[in-house]
Structure to design on (722 residues):
């Protein structure tokens, strides 16, 4: 972790960032290996190319001190954070920072504390600093992500093994969650969309019952050792609905096209272009309403984002989803999602599950 | 809910706020009765005194449309949100808003979308608008909060009934969580601090085992029907540690002093002053390191905050905690927490549990 902090400080220097401010959350946890309790009280970790320190609510200090020796500037509820923040900036030599980077997930009122004090600073978020660093995963991180992907494969299979006509989406979700927990994994999300519900990409899993002939989309993920999994596969109850097999073949070909393009040195938009071209040429372009993918690591959505406009150049060690989809209102939604690790010679898929439709029930 | 929106618009008008922007979260859920999925994609609900509408990621639109008829300005991943946001402001007649209020919990990058577009607007957060409205709970909300408090009482009693020397803090937390779940309540937090751990106000419940003679602080809460509970009580395993009984009497007297002061028309700081005076006079002022309380409702911490500097005038229907504490390093922490509902003639305590120390094990 010390290594990550010193690498970050070199990065700040290279990028011309005078001050980086992080809030409790994924960036801070990745950087220092612990995540202090965050609430409405401003708690900031501030880093310059030369120094680092915390703005720390007094009542968090003792707990946080068990995890770090870095300097704290504490404030008590009745005084408020302003004086302690000013003192921290003074100590860090950042009182006149001309270029600041803010944790994009920070609460707006906490960001205002920084921005109002450094009114004339040029602001960016973390995409060129800690965000860029977190995009590349090392082999140890790969091993955790691979293990996680296999637990998600088993959770998917557990649901397929139990799914029946008449069951509700929430009951299917319950099977997924139990299967994660049985493997020591915390369930993070579970989109179970049967029939027309699947046509909402972010459907809220509910009381709808599975019917004969429904296509069921399942997009699930869990967390273990601070890292996440994320997979989407399709099942059908008995016979597939009309048009399903054709759409499945199109989406699978879109996945293949993006996989083919996923190599170091390629810009991320090339993958989106490749997947989108397959779907557009098949006549379903208007029904692919989202980006092709997102990075995955200690959070479920993080850079690199695989969009039509992304100029991010892929590098070895990047981990992201490839998940094109076609959503046909009132009929079904069909998405297939792989997580890949970019290696010198191309993408390694983390899941061991085939993308074939699974007939269940 | 329509009523809440129209009341909010009157409030915006009265406070001179041209545009309020809310993100997915507690404010929006309270206002409209549903909480759209929030992630890195900007999703904003914008309100002016005359109009209202959403900046909506395209892939959330269908799900959200099931809950509201208000206008959507949708954007797709590849285009990004800027053009849709500009069109929304145009539609709302807020393109030149001079005074804006932002959801303080909004992500910094989403807040930047609003602020960068309205560079010259005067910015505030929600304390004078939706925050002020949420502070006063009606009798229906009181009934839910009262019910919730009783479920927390039972979870506390379940833990007391099972606590034994040798058990870990996490095992005690497990009993609390099960007791909440058995009542249909989602556990929200559980600070279990035994012995010296209790001296960290926000101790992370861990593997420390309960010892004979330990004082154990338990601060727990759950959520049901979108509202929260929050209670802190003390137990001891066998004989209380040296000095415990005196400190308990001081903290209890501090609670009483704040209760005595809690009436409509009184400023919130008067309650903090009253509790702090009792503790300071007893010689423990340096060990009371936090504010006296916080509001409670659909979130665990919300206005009004009961601090030494708060000028908020208490009104009928406000709900907040009174929770002074004394934290003696390496010995124990002692906090007693009541949630009160402010009535014309004084505070009504929600919990039915006495604040006496409970001898267990």
């Amino acid at each position: 972790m010390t290594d990550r902090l010193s690498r970050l400080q070199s990065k700040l220097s290279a990028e011309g960032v005078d001050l980086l401010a992080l809030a409790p959350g994924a960036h801070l946890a990745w950087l220092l290996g612990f995540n202090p309790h965050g609430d409405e009280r401003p708690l900031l970790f501030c880093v310059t190319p030369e120094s680092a320190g915390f703005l720390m609510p007094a009542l968090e200090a003792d707990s946080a001190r068990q995890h770090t020796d870095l300097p704290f500037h504490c404030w008590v509820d009745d005084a408020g954070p302003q004086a302690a923040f000013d003192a921290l900036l003074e100590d860090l030599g950042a009182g006149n920072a001309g270029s600041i980077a803010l944790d994009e997930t920070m609460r707006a009122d906490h960001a205002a504390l920084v921005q109002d004090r450094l009114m004339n600073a040029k602001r960016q978020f973390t995409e060129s600093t800690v965000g860029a660093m977190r995009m590349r995963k090392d082999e140890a991180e790969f091993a955790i992500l691979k293990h996680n992907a296999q637990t998600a494969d088993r959770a998917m299979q557990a649901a397929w093994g139990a799914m029946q006509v008449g069951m509700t989406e929430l009951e299917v979700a319950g099977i997924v969650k139990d299967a994660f927990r049985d493997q020591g994994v915390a369930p993070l999300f579970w989109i179970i969309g049967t029939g027309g519900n699947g046509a909402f990409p972010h459907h809220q899993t509910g009381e709808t019952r599975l019917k004969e002939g429904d296509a069921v989309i399942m997009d699930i993920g869990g967390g273990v050792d601070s890292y996440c999994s994320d997979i989407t596969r399709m099942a059908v109850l008995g016979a597939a609905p009309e048009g399903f097999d054709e759409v499945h073949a199109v989406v699978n070909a879109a996945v293949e096209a993006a996989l083919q393009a996923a190599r170091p040195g390629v810009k991320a938009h090339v993958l989106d272009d490749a997947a989108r071209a397959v779907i557009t040429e098949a006549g379903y372009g208007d029904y692919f309403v989202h980006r092709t993918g997102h990075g995955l690591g200690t959070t479920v959505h993080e850079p690199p984002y695989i969009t039509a406009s992304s100029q991010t150049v892929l590098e070895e060690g990047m981990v992201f989803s490839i998940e094109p989809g076609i959503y046909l209102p009132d009929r079904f939604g069909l998405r297939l999602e792989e997580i890949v690790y970019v290696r010198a010679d191309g993408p390694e898929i983390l899941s061991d599950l085939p993308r074939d439709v699974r007939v269940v029930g």
In short: The radius of gyration of chain A is 23 Å.
